[in-house]
Amino acid sequence: xxxxxxxxxxHLRAWQSxxxxxxxxxxxxxxxxxxxxxxxxxxxxxxxxxxxxxxxQRSLHSLFAEQTTMRxxxxxxxxxxxxxxxxxxxxxxxxxxxxxxxxxxxxKYFAEEAPDxxxxxxxxxxxxxxxxxxxxxxxxxxxxxINPLTFFEYLDTVEPALCNYLxxxxxxxxxxxxxxxxxxxxxxxxxxxxxxxxxxxxxxxTHDITHAEKTLRDILMAYRLDFxxxxxxxxxxxxxxxxxxxxxxxGRDNKKFLYQSAKPGARAREYEDALLWLVQAGLVHKVYRxxxxxxxxxxxxxxxxxxxxALDVGILRIMAQLDARSMLExxxxxxxxxxxxxxxxxxxSLTAQFPxxxxxxxxxxxxxxxxxxxxxxxxxxxxxxxxENIRSKSxxxxxxxxxxxxxxxxxxRNLSFDxxxxxxxxxxxxxxxxxxxxxGSMLSVASIPTHER
Length: 453
Description:
Elements: H1 8-17, E1 24-27, H2 34-45, E2 48-53, H3 60-65, H4 70-81, E3 90-95, H5 101-113, E4 118-123, H6 126-132, E5 142-145, H7 151-158, H8 160-167, H9 177-193, H10 197-206, H11 209-230, H12 236-244, H13 246-251, H14 259-262, H15 268-280, E6 284-290, E7 301-310, H16 313-319, H17 324-328, H18 332-335, H19 338-353, E8 359-363, E9 367-375, E10 378-384, H20 394-402, E11 407-411, E12 416-418, E13 421-425, H21 432-446
Parallel strand pairs: 1-4, 1-5, 2-3, 3-4, 6-8, 10-11, 11-13
Antiparallel strand pairs: 6-7, 8-9, 9-10, 12-13
Helix pairs in contact: 7-8, 9-10, 10-11, 11-16, 12-15
């Protein structure tokens, strides 16, 4: 069975090698590949893997809830596993750990009393659980967020040579046309499933679009079941209204989120808890408008104005009921919504690369810059175009007002850097950080007088 080469493996290997290693906690939405990643890592890096699932093995809850000792817990887990758990060489996986607050609290004692044991936990709704858990062992665990599969992670498995070529770019120069066509076809295929590893695997291995579509719909249904199972009863209908409104919200020219578009008469104060639930569950990205593009961006958030994006472009496509074959054949049905899908894709790619959340900027209804990126000591304006038609005044308006050293435009045009404008082909979005750093180096060299170079 195909396994996608996740960049998170690098973080997991670094965690394993640290002498002061703490229990690890993987966060991420359901079906982004946390469990498969941990199991693969365990088989690759450890002699043994002991897997425990708190959602399936309900009896585990009582083990951690009782007044007990570390020795009793390790001995009991060894019996359940069928062989002794060994320090250093056994990876102990606690899956769906959010189902057991007691087990979460016990991570502190693993850190203090059994630091030689490798403990890696995962949970689909950890953000919500941690938001309610007042006795969580702060400072006793390490966190790692797992995002949906990126295009480069997909490409690294199905076309590794092509992926290496893109990852190792150290110059801003056009990509050869023969490679551009292959990349564009691979990118369109990736957009069908987005970053959900299971449907992406099905499509890559079998080319069965119908099967991949069904798997995506099943994931969407699992999210809806989570609303009913885990959300407060009073918020469940509101969460559904907000979630279902995402395609319509993103389909408008002005993508500012409007509660009234989710349900007529809805007010922010009535829906704040429902929206917070979706954010903490990792199902949506909230992008605030900035009132002033200065450092740090977080100091200038307009908390009343924001855009909401889905966690993944494949999920958004299914929610919008866009047929996969229509996308491949470039029918008008896809054309009408392609800008929203492209913007969502760029957002999730940049979120995986940069730690500081993106913002957006508007200017008196004259211009709107899709995203603002804070990177090092720069604020970089970003514009997203779904094809080669790149006419827009927003970046120009922003540039006239603030003179940023680098502006970024994503489109289907070839890679280029001219007059401070970096055009990144959409299939190279995952290389954004590297390409910006290359441009930054070019600008630094250009600023040095010729006789001093």
